[in-house]
C-alpha cells in the first residue's frame, strides 16, 4: 500500500473517463494505489467564498484520515482538489491560530507528514517519465496535439511549485515520450471559466470560444487536458458554442491519461473513450492508434 | 449633484484581518486586470477594487457584482509584482459581504455556492443531479443547460443517487463547529 487516492467528487461522476483512465494507467504501470475510505468533499469551488475556516477544515479532515489510514503520499487527481489540499497544508503549517481553530473544529490533531500530488505531478515527479517511456507499447505516432493546462495546474506558484508558471511543459513532455507531436501555443494557461460551469455559463461560453478559436488555427487532431473542469467546459459546451458563434470545431478534448492508457496498451473501453462528447474515435482510427 | 461615497477607513484592515493580505502594497500597475479573464464583465476591474478598498469604499466594493465575477483562476496573483494575492482579497470581500448581510448581486453564483455546500453538509460529497436540480430550483431556470446535461446523462456520467459518506456525523460536526466558532 503505497499511494492513497483521493478521488474527489468528479472521479466517478462528470469526469468518469478521467477516473477510469487513471485506474487503467496505474494498473498498466503496476502502481500500488488504494482509494481512501469514506473520503469527504474538499469544498473546492464554494467553501472559500463562504468561510476561510470551512475551506481549511474540509481538506484537513481528508489529510488527517489519510495519515490515519497509513498513507504518506496522497494522489488527488482533480486539479482543484489538489490545490485545496495543498493550500490547507501550507496554511495550517504557517498559521498557528488557524491551526488551533481547525483542530478544534475537527477534534483531532494534524501531525503533518503527508505529500499531495495532482495527477500531472504524480506521473512526472513521482513515477517519472523514464518508467512510463519503458512501458509504452503503442506509440501515438503521427498524432498532432496541443496541451491545455488551464489556470490551476501551475498556480498559485508557491503552492503548486510546478514547472514554469507561464509556460509549463510537463504535459507536453508526457505527450512526447508517448510518441505524439505536441505544439507550442500562447494560451496554455488561460482560464476556461472553471467553476462558473453551472452558474455563469455565458462567461464559460465566451472563454471557451476564445480558446477554441486559437486551437482551430493550430489544426491539431485533439486537445490534451488534465483537469475535469477544463475537459467538461470545452467538450460538452462545444456544440453550444458552435451554434452561438455559427462556426464548426469538432475537436476532441481528451484527458492525457486516456492517451497514456492507450499508449500503454489499454483498450478504448478501459480508458472510457466513449464517454467523451466530441467523438475522438475517427481521428484515432485514421492515425492507426485504434 | 454627485453622490458622496461613504468612506469606511477600517475596510482595508478588515480585509487584512480576514485574509492576511495588505492591499496598501498595491501600486496600481494594472497587471492583475490585464490578465484577468473576467475583467471584461466586471464593472470595477481587480486593480480598481483594490484601490477602492485602499480608499475605504466599502459599499461600492461589497454591493457590486464585480467581486462575484472572479473565477479564482489565480492569474492576477501569479503575475502581481507586489505578491499581493487578489484571490484571497476577493474571497475575504465575499465572506464579509455575506456576513454583513449584503445581497449577492449575481443570484446564479449565490445559488451555486449554497447548493454546493448544502449537499456537502448533507451527504459529505457532491452529487451532480442534486446540484443541478437545486440550482435550477433556486434560480427558477429549469430548462437552462439541457444542451450540456443531456449528453453527460447519456454518457453515464450523472449518478442518480447521492453517495453518502458513512461517517456523516463527522461531516455534520465539522459544519456545526465551524459555524459555532465563527459566531464567537
Ligand atoms: S498586479 Fe498587483 S500591484 Fe499591480 S495593480 Fe494588480 S494588485 Fe496592484
Ligand atoms: S483570480 Fe479572479 S481576479 Fe484574478 S485573474 Fe482570475 S478571475 Fe481575474
Task: Describe this entry's structure for a reader.
The complex is a heterodimer of chains A (about 290) and B (about 180). Chain A contains 14 helices and 8 strands. Chain A is α/β, with parallel strands linked by helices and about 290 residues long. Chain A has a 4-stranded parallel β-sheet. Chain A has a 4-stranded parallel β-sheet with strand order 6-5-7-8, with helices on both faces. The longest helix of chain A has 18 residues, at about 200-220. With about 180 residues, chain B is mostly helical. Chain B starts with 10 loop residues before the first helix and ends with a helix. In chain B, about 40% of the residues are buried. Chain B has helices spanning about 10-20, 30-35, 45-55, 60-65, 75-80, 85-100, 105-125, 130-140, 145-155, 170-184. Chain B is built from 10 helices and no strands. At the A-B interface, helix 2, helix 3, helix 5 and helix 10 of A face helix 5, helix 6, helix 7, helix 8 and helix 9 of B. One iron/sulfur cluster (SF4) binds next to helix 5 and helix 6 of chain B.
